[in-house]
């Protein structure tokens, strides 16, 4: 029995833990049990020795001793891996606490521990060999150390880790894939570090993290998709950082987020579309930021939100639909903002908040509560209005509903007259009076000053005391402004008795707020002690700014409104269809299109060559389609040619568009040859052959060039007929040359234009006219063009054109004849020169022999 007990104790997990804590105690315990068993064996042997045989006696003595050896061996195997607790650390079961030991390096740790706390030490790195062996570790706390960096391979063997805290270290960045091996991590705390930004790869691999703490860093930037890998994240803490906006890009991937803490930042802008990535949000804390306005539908995607904290901002503007989508909201804190103007204007900002139970409006400088200002709060149980100098409580301003259990109010400036009788009666009959409500006192009229609201006699609440009412001295005036201009309305009011005045503006009975983006601003000037003037300025007005405006003058008790005045924005005329250059034949029908728009609608009329009297209109051949913007000239004549101007005119201005109309004889329009000749000063029409159906629907792109250079358009040279026709009015010498049209960049047509010279008298007359025209239209031509024109004219005077094929052939033939003649002349001269005299001198035989002898020597 003793052996069995020792065997079970040794192999049990708790025994192993016991051995780790104090192995010496365990040895003593084992030794005692062994001695007891020996004694038992000896005693049994002594009583059995008398009657039993000798062999049986020896077996009974030694068998128990031999049975101890398996027990000892098994215990040794069970305690082989057991190690002692690190020095100065505390061990309990599978947890080791090594905190506050000023460690610079982790000690050797038992391999089977589950939790390790090494906080409040001097550790500079976590890439320690002692951690690599802790494969069963689930909780790791390294808070308040000097860790500067996180290497990507530090957590390679900690695959079972579920909680990791690195609070108050010196981390400046999170390396790429630093946590990629922590597949089982549930909670990560990196608060109180020195992180500046979060990259998109910072939390790669943390697919099961549910809680992430990043508060009290210096975060000013969160990259797009930084939390995209945290698919299971439920709580995100980003408070006490330097964030300036809530963007739609870094909220991506937080589909399951339920709690978001963004308090104590510098958030001044919220992109409402960003909330679509976290539509399951239940708690949102935006307190202690720099929000100044809540625009319409800013929380439109947060329909499940239950708690919203917007306290300690600078909110002075709340659109009526800003909170309407929060149908499940139960807690709303708007304390320490600037909501005085919002409440004085009587806006119903709580519509749709039927489930709100707690509403906090403390410290908002509220001076009055208009009637039904809390409309929509059907289940309100607690209303806090502390630290507000409220003077006026309009009838039914506080909801008298059965669910309301507590009102916190401590204003000592209340006007106690007949208009507040309902409130005092309601408070005196209330069953639950809060401590702060007992501090609310009257200030007006003087005879009630200092009295508690809950103790004022109702029969003394009269309205015989005069209360100042604001009056409008100068009504705003209607304005007609041109598009893009800046307009300003002004409104002056007076209030006797030193009352405070609020002036705001509305457009079409909707309140306006100052907005830099929309170019709307207003300012209030106090001219003396009684007169105020408000200015509403709208920059770069456009058509949507048109409407009816009025100013509202409010004090704590009453409101005065001005007359409605209109703002009319005029838009100068602009063309939606412009007339195009047109070439027509005599007797045909000419179609001209011209349409314009603007505010007010412009009137359209036509001119020809700058005048209103032209043949088509005088002869009633100019027709207008009543239901279209098309103008027709029927039975076209040569006199109809000219420059037609479409003029759109309105009180906002006018616009002008011109097009040239050229009327030609029927035979002058179609040219099938490759050359075209035109008299000097006449009109030349060059046509580029194309398939008419492609040109009509715009599929053919036609480009013209002159002598290899892009064709330059001006008042005398223009393109008509959807690009198919090139019209040159009053042809000149420099107009001749090679013209090329390209269809869609691949089909080319070439045509040579020749300008014929007139007789001397007509030529002089035309040249004098062309010079005057050149001074008006072509005064900026370069010298190269003039030289080219002179060369062309000189070649034309010599009788042929060097650019033509015939001229080249003639030149080549003449050159060949000249060369051939020169060759024949050279041959004839050589054959006729005198014969040369040749004298043969024979050598002397004696001299030859003498030479031979000398050579032989």
From TrEMBL:
It comes from the Eukaryota. Keywords: Disulfide bond, Immunoglobulin domain, Leucine-rich repeat, Membrane, Repeat, Signal, Transmembrane, Transmembrane helix. One of its GO terms (cellular component) is plasma membrane. InterPro entries: Ig-like_dom (IPR007110), Ig-like_dom_sf (IPR036179), Ig-like_fold (IPR013783), Ig_I-set (IPR013098), Ig_sub (IPR003599), Ig_sub2 (IPR003598), Leu-rich_rpt (IPR001611), Leu-rich_rpt_typical-subtyp (IPR003591). Its main location: membrane. Residues 470-562, 573-662, 667-752 form the Ig-like domain. SUPFAM superfamilies: Immunoglobulin, L domain-like. It is found in: Membrane. Residues 765-784 have a biased composition (Basic and acidic residues). Residues 765-791 are annotated as: Disordered. This is Leucine-rich repeats and immunoglobulin-like domains protein 2. It comes from Trichinella murrelli. The lineage of its organism: Eukaryota, Metazoa, Ecdysozoa, Nematoda, Enoplea.
């Amino acid at each position: 029995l003793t052996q069995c007990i020792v065997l079970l104790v040794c192999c049990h997990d708790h025994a192993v833990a016991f051995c780790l804590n104090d192995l010496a105690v365990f040895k003593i315990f084992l030794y005692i049990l062994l001695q007891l068993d020996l004694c038992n064996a000896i005693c049994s042997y002594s009583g059995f020795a008398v009657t039993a045989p000798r062999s049986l006696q020896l077996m009974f003595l030694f068998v128990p001793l031999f049975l101890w050896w398996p027990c000892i061996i098994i215990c040794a195997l069970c305690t082989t891996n057991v190690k002692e607790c690190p020095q100065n650390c505390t061990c309990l079961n599978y947890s080791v606490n090594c905190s506050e030991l000023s460690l610079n390096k982790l000690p050797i740790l038992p391999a089977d521990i589950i939790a390790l706390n090494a906080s409040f030490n001097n550790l500079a790195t976590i890439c320690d060999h002692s951690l690599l062996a802790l494969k069963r570790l689930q909780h790791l706390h390294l808070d308040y150390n000097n860790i500067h960096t996180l290497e990507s391979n530090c957590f390679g063997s900690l695959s079972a880790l579920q909680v990791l805290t690195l609070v108050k270290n010196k981390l400046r960045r999170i390396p790429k894939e630093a946590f990629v091996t922590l597949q089982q991590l549930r909670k990560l705390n990196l608060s109180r570090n020195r992180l500046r930004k979060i990259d998109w790869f910072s939390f790669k691999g943390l697919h099961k993290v549910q809680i992430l703490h990043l508060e009290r860093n210096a975060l000013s930037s969160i990259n797009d998709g930084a939390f995209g890998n945290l698919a299971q994240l439920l709580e995100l803490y980003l408070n006490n950082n330097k964030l300036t906006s809530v963007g739609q890009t870094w909220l991506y991937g937080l589909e399951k987020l339920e709690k978001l803490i963004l308090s104590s930042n510098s958030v001044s802008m919220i992109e409402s579309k960003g909330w679509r990535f976290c539509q399951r949000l239940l708690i949102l804390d935006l307190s202690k930021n720099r929000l100044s306005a809540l625009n319409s539908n800013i929380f439109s995607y947060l329909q499940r939100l239950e708690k919203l904290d917007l306290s300690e901002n600078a909110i002075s503007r709340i659109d009526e639909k800003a909170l309407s989508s929060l149908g499940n909201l139960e807690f709303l804190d708007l304390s320490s903002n600037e909501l005085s103007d919002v409440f004085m204007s009587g806006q119903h900002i709580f519509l749709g908040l039927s489930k709100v139970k707690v509403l906090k409006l403390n410290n908002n400088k509220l001076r009055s509560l208009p009637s039904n200002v809390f409309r929509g709060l059907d289940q309100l149980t607690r209303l806090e209005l502390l630290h507000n100098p409220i003077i006026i409580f309009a009838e039914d301003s506080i909801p008298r509903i059965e669910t309301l259990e507590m009102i916190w109010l401590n204003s000592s400036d209340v006007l106690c007259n007949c208009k507040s009788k309902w409130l005092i009666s309601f408070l005196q009959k209330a069953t639950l009076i809060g401590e702060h409500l007992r501090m609310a006192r009257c200030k007006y009229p003087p005879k009630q000053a200092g009295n508690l609201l809950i103790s004022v006699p109702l029969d003394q609440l009269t309205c015989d005391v005069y209360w100042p009412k604001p009056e409008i001295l100068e009504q705003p005036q209607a304005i007609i402004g041109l598009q893009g201009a800046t307009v300003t309305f002004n409104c002056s009011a007076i209030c006797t008795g030193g009352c405070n005045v609020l002036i705001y503006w509305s457009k079409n009975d909707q309140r306006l707020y100052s907005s830099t983006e929309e170019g709307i601003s207003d300012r209030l000037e106090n001219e003396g002690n009684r007169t105020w003037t408000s200015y509403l300025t709208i920059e770069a007005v456009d058509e949507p700014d048109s409407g009816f405006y009025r100013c509202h003058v409010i004090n704590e008790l009453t409101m005065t409104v001005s007359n409605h005045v209109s703002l009319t924005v005029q838009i100068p005329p602009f063309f939606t269809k412009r007339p195009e250059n047109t070439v027509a034949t005599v007797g045909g029908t000419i179609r001209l299109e011209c349409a314009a728009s603007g505010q007010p609608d412009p009137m359209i009329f036509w001119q020809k060559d700058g005048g209103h009297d032209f043949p088509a209109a005088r002869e009633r051949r100019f027709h207008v389609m009543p239901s279209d913007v098309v103008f027709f000239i029927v039975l076209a004549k040569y006199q109809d040619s000219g420059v037609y101007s479409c003029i759109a005119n309105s009180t906002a201005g006018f616009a002008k568009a011109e097009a040239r109309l050229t009327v030609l004889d029927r035979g002058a329009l179609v040219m099938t040859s490759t050359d075209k000749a035109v008299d000097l000063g006449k009109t030349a029409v060059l046509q580029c052959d194309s398939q008419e159906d492609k040109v009509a629907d715009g599929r053919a792109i036609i480009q013209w060039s002159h002598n290899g250079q892009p064709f330059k358009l001006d008042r005398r040279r223009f393109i008509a007929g959807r690009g198919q026709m090139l019209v040159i009015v009053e042809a000149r010498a420099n107009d001749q040359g090679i013209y090329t049209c390209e269809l869609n960049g691949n089909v080319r047509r070439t045509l040579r234009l020749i300008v014929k010279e007139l007789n001397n008298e007509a030529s002089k007359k035309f040249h004098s006219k062309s010079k005057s025209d050149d001074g008006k239209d072509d005064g900026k031509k370069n010298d190269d063009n003039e030289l080219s024109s002179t060369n062309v004219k000189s070649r034309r005077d010599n009788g042929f054109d060097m650019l033509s094929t015939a001229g080249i052939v003639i030149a080549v033939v003449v050159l060949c004849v000249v060369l051939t003649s020169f060759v024949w002349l050279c041959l004839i001269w050589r054959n006729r020169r005198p014969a040369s005299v040749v004298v043969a001198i024979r050598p002397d035989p004696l001299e030859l022999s003498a030479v031979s002898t000398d050579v032989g020597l």
